[in-house]
Amino acid sequence: MSDLTDLSLAGARDALRRGDVTAAGLAQAYLDAAEAGAVLNAVVTPTPDLALQQAAAADERLAGGDAPDLCGIPIGVKDLFCTKGVRSQAGSKILDGFRPEYESTVTDRLFADGAVMTGKLNMDEFAMGSSNETSTYGPVVNPWRAKGSNADLTPGGSSGGSAAAVAAGLCLAALGTDTGGSIRQPAAFTGIVGIKPTYGRVSRWGIVAFASSLDQAGPMTRDVRDAAILLRAMCGHDPKDSTSAPRGVPDFEAMLEDGVAGRVIGVPREYRMDGMPDEIEALWRRGMDMLRDAGATMRDISLPHTKYALPAYYVIAPAEASSNLARYDGVRFGHRAALSQGDGITDLYEKTRAEGFGPEVQRRVMVGTYVLSAGFYDAYYNRARKVRALIKRDFEQVFEDGVDAILTPTTPSAAFPLGAMADADPIRMYLNDVFTVTVNLAGLPGISVPAGLDAAGLPLGLQLIGKPWEEGALLSAAHALEARAGFAARPDRWW
Amino acid sequence: MSIDRETARKVASLARIRVPDDRLDALAGEFNAILSFVEQLREVDVDGVAPMTSVTPMRLPRRDDVVTEGGQADAVLANAPEAREGFFAVPKVVE
């Protein structure tokens, strides 16, 4: 074969098992690709020594003949995951030089299966952002460019490094996390697949917490089959995460061909936003046609509280973040500010946090502090939690009425230029998550599938939202959509 | 509800983030932009709705109240900016 990095995860797995390629050869090919793609700033901590060591162990295991799916597969890991002995900074200066003494449950599971980590991937600081511009490592550059333009575009965020790395072939697949759309939005902006599983499906243990009731990790891959394979390896009950569900994990890959014949797909009228570009609207309609062609029935549905999802999110997520990020105080790990003569413990905290947190993180921590403060707790935080209950009820209602899955656009636009939002009100950036954030609030699984290109030649994604715990059915619907969309475009290699 | 300079100062202090005086007005403005956006939540009729406490209906599991992974002081201190004699070191707290 011409290039090892052209293989899908499923293809690489099968080639490794047949002995056509070795884990060591595959790892080296991706380490080289990552180095050649350094200008994208997607990989912030390459781990070549670890990768080659893990690849050698994987080759031994493959020779033994009983290798799990992930054995010998080179993956990139979002900087939010704690990886033992490897710098894990959540894209923040406040975790400068932090090398965890432990392994996150997800990476531990993948490594136990023989996966090979080629590096840690860039992200918005503490996963707060939709453009990867809040990272202490600087922005990630989208491998895609608009036709006839050399302008650098955002890969989306917060899992922008993961998205860019997969789209540019710097790793075979990547781990992302999604609190309001942070897997699905960058997947859409880079023409790849990303799934946020049901809340509780994947252990959060060892993943730096942003908003604990919304965070879920998930795979970011080149196609739906690869997502099914990687998701299965990530899932499973973990006693170390009290919200991890004690449920069996089905073989998602085996369910891919189930299809959508006879299923009812809901199309929520509230997602038809004012000012939505025609191209997004047209893509959505094509998505409906593709699912109809696969045998599904479209149904017009209403999710009446959709409009209030972003406002509720921007109370709940900052509130949880202000609490979770209280631990960064310059005492136990990471950055500590230099102190002046006579400075006390409060100066230590305040100076450390002012130096260590970037502007967006500071803003959200303070908004969270405000909405939780005495006198405002009921007006903001409790009210937002009540609205959240109503948003979840909207979904429960349509599922009870016989809807099997819901189709929406993933994002209101294609990737925008880096720096485009620099002077904008923070709310404009938040609107990127308008179609994805409801899914986190309701704890549901959601997947973004690349479905077409816009007039400038940039990828656009469609989102499917599933019932809780039914990732298998969701992936099979996504597989049907993918087959009909026939999205095969790749970014031109300019780096 | 509009946030003024003094409220911004108080919130920054509660959040233990040092904000220079010349940034307070801008900060208050950013808070107001976000809070006026979330103000929309007041339009929703939430009478009789219980605040959501659990994303998926499950009882919080309990475990035995025993030490699971103790005796790792060195690992706990390994990332400390300053540690002395088995403790985290901080500036003097009590005068």
Explain this structure to me?
The complex is a heterodimer of chains A (about 500) and B (about 100). Chain A is α/β, with parallel strands linked by helices and about 500 residues long. Chain A has a domain at about 5-260: Amidase signature (AS) domain (Amidase signature (AS) enzymes, Alpha-Beta Complex). Helix content of chain A is about 35%, strand content about 15%. Chain A is built from 15 helices and 11 strands. Chain A has helices at about 10-20, 25-35, 50-65, 105-110, 160-165, 185-190, 225-235, 280-295, 310-325, 345-355, 360-370, 375-400, 425-430, 435-440, 470-485; strands at about 45, 75-80, 115-120, 175-180, 195, 215-220, 265-270, 295-300, 405-410, 445-455, 460-465. Chain A has an 11-stranded mixed beta sheet with strand order 1-3-2-4-6-5-10-11-9-7-8, sandwiched between helices. The longest helix of chain A is centred in the C-terminal third of the chain and has 24 residues, at about 375-400. The mean pLDDT of chain A is about 95. By secondary structure, chain B is mainly alpha-helical. Chain B has a domain at about 5-45. Chain B is built from 3 helices and 2 strands, in the order H-H-H-E-E. Chain B has a two-stranded antiparallel sheet with strand order 1-2. In chain B, a hairpin with a 2-residue loop joins strand 1 and strand 2. Classes of the chains: A alpha/beta (about 500), B mainly alpha (about 100). Chains A and B meet through helix 9, helix 10, helix 11, helix 12 and helix 13 of A and helix 1 and helix 2 of B.
